[in-house]
Amino acid sequence: MTQEAMTELRKFVAPEFVFGPGSARLAGRYAKNLRFKKALVVTGPNLIRLGWAGQVIDSLREAGVATTIFADVTPNPRDYEVMAGAEVYRREGCDALVAVGGGSPMDCAKAIGIVCANDRHVLDFEGVDNVRKPGPPLLCVPTTSGTGADVSQFAIINDTKRKVKIAIVSKTVIPDAALIDPTPTTTMDPELTAHTGLDALTHAIEAYVSNAQSPVTDLFALRAIELVRAHLVTAIRRPDDIAARSGMMYASLYAGLAFSNAILGAVHAMAHSLGGFLDLPHGLCNAILLDHVADYNYQSAPGRYDDVGRILGARLAPDMQSDDRKQAVITALRDLKKDAGVDQTLSDLGVRPAELSELSAKAINDPCMITNPRHPKVEDIRALYEAACRFHA
Ligand SMILES: [Fe+2]
User: 198 alpha carbon to ligand 1 midpoint, in Å?
Assistant: First the structure.
């Protein structure tokens, strides 16, 4: 830890949360305490089919809170979905929001709240601290372990005209409370478990090497990496293993607290570009890019990447040359990806060479790039995309 980090002023924001199996059933009690009368429940069709949205709605109704469901939310949630949700919220006379789902319903609910409170279009809030009035109270019940949206001050929304994901970063979008229950994550399939788990790992690593890290974010980031190493593969292989699912839910929570306060880096900037332009899955994009960006970033934060590598099982002897250390860290990352079943390239996802210039131009302007430890030129980003198109993990 540097002397600067010990003496600089650092802020850390986090919502109230309840962690543990069964916490989702506290939704009614929390809604009542927060004086909800009618909640817009933002969720997805899958969560309704699996019964997780119903469980939360039952709890709300038992507490005397009326509900309206809004489930027209896709992965990489779009600007027009937010505006449609805001319309339903107003039309139905709602006074609160409850999100049940992964990052997409939670980000959509956050955005609906600020659209309604400020009577503006969602794209007007792009950037840092551009929300004047906070939204109505928001309760989040995450059903995946990776996103961190349940505790973060981020909402990521797809600007469908520009085909770019915008980041809304504001304390006003931090939920009023999060009910973090590992039980719903037992119905995630192995692929979704792997992708969301590697998203959590990426949050933790990018927060740890970020220019905006602090001793507090470091604590959460390092523990999140340990937990992913300890539990991800078990959660993939044994979906009902509640200890592994709890471990991954803690990993997601810790990584979310770390990145909400330390921000992210080039992996997320590049994944946002892929998600906005080609509508590709967020967690998988991060997982594919993670080791390539580590290779590029290593020279700017070698000690921090060594810490990450050690936690992931890299053997780093004190007399090793810098290049060998870097290679050992990258190998540890690739081994974990392989164990999680992620071995695709960006080409496998349909990314074509002709698209790389536009993807790179969009990524370089993403706000997450600002806190990346090494400041890339657009040609560097293009080279990273090219490598991620070619090489398997
Ligand atoms: Fe992410």
Answer: 9
22 burial (CB, 10 Å; 0-12 / 13-18 / 19+) is exposed
Torsion (CA) 267, 269, 275, 281 in degrees, nearest 10: 20
* Token digits of residue 202: 């990426």
Q: Which two tokens stand for residue 121?
A: 């279009």
Half-sphere exposure of 335 (CA within 13 A, CB side): 12
Distance 147 CA to ligand 1 centre (A): 6
Distances (CA, A) of 125 to 157, 365, 367: 10, 16, 13
Q: With pLDDT > 90 as the criterion, what percentage of the chain qualifies?
A: 96
Phi, psi of 165 (to 5 degrees): -85, 130
Tokens of 342: 């992620």
Angle 215-237/242-262 helices, nearest 10 degrees? Answer: 150
Output the CA 172–ligand 1 centroid distance in Å: 19
Neighbours of 366 (CB within 10 A): 24
Whether residue 393 is predicted with pLDDT greater than 70 in this model: the reply is no
Residue 243 Cα to ligand 1 midpoint, Å, equals 23
Rounded to 10 deg, the angle between the 190-209 and 266-278 helix axes is 140
Say if pTM beats, i.e. exceeds, 0.85.
Answer: yes
Cα-to-centroid distance, 199 and ligand 1 (Å) = 5
Q: How far is the CA of 77 from the centre of ligand 1 (A)?
A: 14
**Residue 1 pLDDT grade (very low, low, confident, very high; cuts 50, 70, 90):** very low
- 78 DSSP 8-state letter: B
Q: How many angstroms does the Cα of residue 282 sit away from the middle of ligand 1?
A: 7
